[in-house]
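__Record contents__

***
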Amino acid sequence: MAEASASAGLVGGLLSFAVARGAPRDALLDCAALSPDQLDDPDNRIPLETYRQLLGAAKDLCGDPALALKWGEAVDMAEISIVGLIMNASRTMADAFAQMQRYSRLAVELDTASPQPRFVIEQSSGERWLVDTRRNPNGFPEMSEISFARLTCGPRRFLDQPHVLEAHFTHDDPGYADEYDRIFQCPVVFSSRRNALRLHPDTPSWPVQLEPGYVFGILTRHADRLLEKIERTRTVRARVEGLLMPNLHRGDFTADGIARELGFSRQTLYRKLRDEGTSFGAVVDELRRNLAMEYLTSKKASVNETAYLLGYADPASFSRAFKRWTGESPREVGGR
């Protein structure tokens, strides 16, 4: 998969928050192998692993396992990212959410190959849910804490009534559930099947526009330029994965077709991938393997459904490929 990253503004905001709570600045920088000049421009990109290491060091040095949750509560997104500024300049909560979908990867780009935004709205039994779709969320549960605390506490500063009615997390109770209760002020469910916030049904129509309308245009033009820059700096592999994802289930993709989409000849595509230490076939194979493991271990799809989603002609073909990848059958992995 493509390298994940966070904005320097976000990373610098975490650093400042931790220092204000007692962590030594130099020790934090050393633990994350981070240099101060990397944070000079808030639009710079920092590897997500560096962000993760900084957060772990901040929790340890502050002696506070709930630090991520408290950071999401205390610091408004508009203070550390253009994404928050754009959301604050939106006309309504529905508009703010649409802008978050569009620009959220300017703050954190978790999975450049995903065909859908990280956050989606789902309607179920008359209820409205904001769902975090990121893969393997329990591998970095602090991301769920930060995002949901910020999405809850940020709008609370200007809304007249609660917009979050229930909070669900896929990770287990981390041992400080009382902090969750204090921050979310609504029922909190751990070990849930998804990370999601149940919203008040009227939330989309509630007004925001904390900034003048002309500011919105200025900010979105700058944000569009930043998105274009991210796209230009992606690896060819990441761009190939992004084109493969929505077409895997059809199984009708070809190297020639993907190359045309990228503006390359097939030979140029092969050469660029070879320069990155991979090949077209290896990219397809690894993408299918990773998705298969995600679908089966998270119980998102049955074996037959997974075979279809990955573009295999039949479940038997998928089972043979899965056995080659893992040495196990898909039913053994899916049944755990």
